[in-house]
Structures are given as structure tokens and as C-alpha cells.
Amino acid sequence: MRVSTRTPSRAAAALAAAALGLAALVGGILLPTPAHADDAAPDVRWSVVPADASGPDGRRTVDVRLDPGQSVEDHFAVRNVGDAEVTFRLTAADGFTTPAGRFDILADGTASVDAGTWISVPESVTVAAGATVVVPFTIAVPATAEPGDHAAGITASVLSVRRADGGASVGVESRVGFRVLTRVTGEIAPAAALDATAASYDIDWNPLRPGTAVVTFDVANAGNTRLVAAGTVSVGDRTVSFPAEGESATELLPGDRRTMRVVVDGVWPLVYVPATVSLVPRAVTIAGDTPAVAPTSAEASLWALPAPQAIVLLGIALLVFALFWGRTRSRRRIDQLVAQAHEEGRRAAAADLNQEAPRG
Asked: Where are the bilayer-spanning segments (predicted)?
């Protein structure tokens, strides 16, 4: 079973435009591994991870559950693994999911309107070569914040200058950071929807082998919590799970929509084959809070014409007909020869009798 996905962003046109502004950035927002600045500049490599007051604490993301009007202080660590002191610019901004399914934050110049505005970080931090600095930050949820999950991110960045074609100098901002997800208490209503379900069939022209069904469908996060999409796809008597073992989970922020494609092998062409997508989403647990999500399903069907098998059966039928027709023709020929021999014998006998008759 193979699954592929495509995810539009959460905030439609604004976030799509922001995603275009990220094309020049180095590394992904979720990557805690060291990043590299311009090769022509001093060796600048760094990482940014959540931390406690004493240093990195093993978290990859920050997930908090807060009431409207509540605030909390947390920390992150900026590690400079280069060979020179660097001053990093610190930024917090709204988060979204890219079309490739990765988490990112709004580019510089695009104003945050949600959880990115709730996070207060220092403007910059200076880190000596080989050192790590712990930076405090505050998440303050407005009293008017809507319940549910709100995504943001924190990054540390440096600006490098590179030579473009023609010799012009171009400034490129490279940033590394992590996700901050704030669940605001209140009416938590996780929900998922399925639509645009379709199925097609790929024939295996070996008549002794089944073909392959391809089922596509859209999964939409219609609630206010972050979801992990999982479930099964059944085609005929074949059922497979998604995501498959070893595949990464499919996560959707509120408002996200993702197109999924599931390939089901071993489907025999039985002319009309029903298909069922069963979605069993799971809300992400934050601070021990795991809201229940109702499963949902959608139906589809496909035409799987048994062309290879029909060709074989037609060939067998033609062979049987040819054998039968040849046998019938041979039998008729033999019957004609026997009748002809009988007629010739009768005529010969009559001629002999005429010759032997007495003359008057």
C-alpha cells in the first residue's frame, strides 16, 4: 500500500503568499539540526530547541494548554556550533502547513494575526562560538481567544550576503526554529470530514494476477484541534491501513485540507467493485487532554472490467469452436466418402447384373 498527500495551508491566500516568501530560507522550521549560513562568510551553524531554565530538555516542540487570559513562561536554547560569535535575530510568528505537508511560519513582512502575536521573545541573542544560551519567552493568551489549537513558531535567524548572477549582492535570511502549539480551553470540538472520494483501476494484463485500485480522497479538519488522520481503505475484499507501517503520520491543523492517495494491490477485476474509506482521526494530546473525535466514512466504486480474463476465455471458446467445427467438417467429409463409396458399389453391382442377364 502506498499513500501520498497534498495539503493546502490553513489561512488560504494569506498563508499561501507567505509560503512563497519562504523559498529563500535554509532548512525547515522543525529541524533542530544545525543550519549553515553562506559558505563565503564565517562558519555559522546553529540549532534551536525547546528547553528548561538549565538547557535543552528533550522536547522537539512546545505544546501548552491555557485558559483565555492566562500566560506561561517557557524557554528555548540557541546553540552556536560555529567558530565565531554570532548575534541571532529572534522571531515568533503564526504557523501553517505547507502544500508539502511541512510546518512553517509566516515569512518576514507578513503580519501575524493569531498565536504568533501571543508569544513574546527578545529581539536578539548573542551566542559565543561553541556555546548555548537559554532564552526565556512568554505565551500570553488573550481573554478573547477562541477555543482550540493555535499554531505558531519561534526561530533564530542570521542574514548572509550572497552574490547573484551579474555580481549583485543579495541578502538571504536563514532561520531555524520549532513549533509552538497553544490549546485554548473552552468548547473543544474536533471534527474531520471526507469528500472528493474517487477510485480507479489499473489492469494487470497477466490473467492470473489481480490488478491495482487507486483511491483518492480529501481529508478536511473541520474542527478546532490539531488532528492526526488515519484509517482504512477497503476495495472489494482487500483492506489496507493508512498511513502504512513506517510512514509518517498525516497531521492537519484546524482548517487544513489534505488530498490523500491510497494504492490497494491485489484487487480482482469483478466488473463493479465497491470501495470504502473509513477515517478514524485522532486529536493530538496536549497536557493530558485528548478530545474524542467521531470517525467518518465515504463510499466510492470503480469499474474493473476483466479484459485479460475475457480475452483468455474468448481464446478458449474460439479454440473449442475450431475443434468442434473441424471435427464436424471431418465427419461430414467421411460421411460423404462413405455415401459415395456405397453409391459406386451399388452402380457397379447393377452393371454386373446387367452383364450377366440371359439374352433372348
From this structure: 303-325
Q: Is 301 helix (H, G, I), strand (E, B) or coil?
A: strand
Separation CA 153–CA 17 (nearest Å): 18
How far is the C-alpha of 33 from the C-alpha of 47, rounded, in Å?
Answer: 6
Helix (H, G, I), strand (E, B) or coil at 359: coil
pLDDT higher than 80, residue 51 = yes
The model's pLDDT over 164-184, given as tens digits with 9 standing for 90+, comes to: 666 666 667 889 999 999 999
The residue to which cell 556550533 is assigned: 81
* Average of per-residue pLDDT across 172-197: 94
What is the count of structural domains for the chain?
A: 3
132 in the same domain as 38:
yes
Question: Mean of the pLDDT values across residues 184-210?
Answer: 94
The bridge status of strand 2-6 relative to strand 257-267 is antiparallel
End-to-end CA distance of the chain: 104
- Cα 249 to its chain centre, rounded Å, is 9
